[in-house]
Amino acid sequence: MWKPILSAPFGRNLELAVFDDDGKHALVFPCIRGTEGWKNAATGARIDVGPTHWRDWAPERIAAGNSDAFGERP
What we know:
Layout (H helix, E strand, L loop, with lengths): L2 E2 L9 E7 L2 E4 L4 E4 L2 E4 L5 E2 L3 E6 L2 H5 L11
Antiparallel strand pairs: 1-7, 2-3, 2-7, 4-5, 5-6
């Protein structure tokens, strides 16, 4: 279930939902919330995103090709 971004925990692998010029989608890599913003959990690189919702990272959901599965709308 998607949760509001303001409730996102720090220091955990999360899946982020974003709305941008291409519409709504979930990022295909795990992200970590830090005190200085969001980072790619795999590389540690800072990312410039404005997520609206989050849920726990589930690699099996991504591997199955459901990375933007908004069956549970954010």
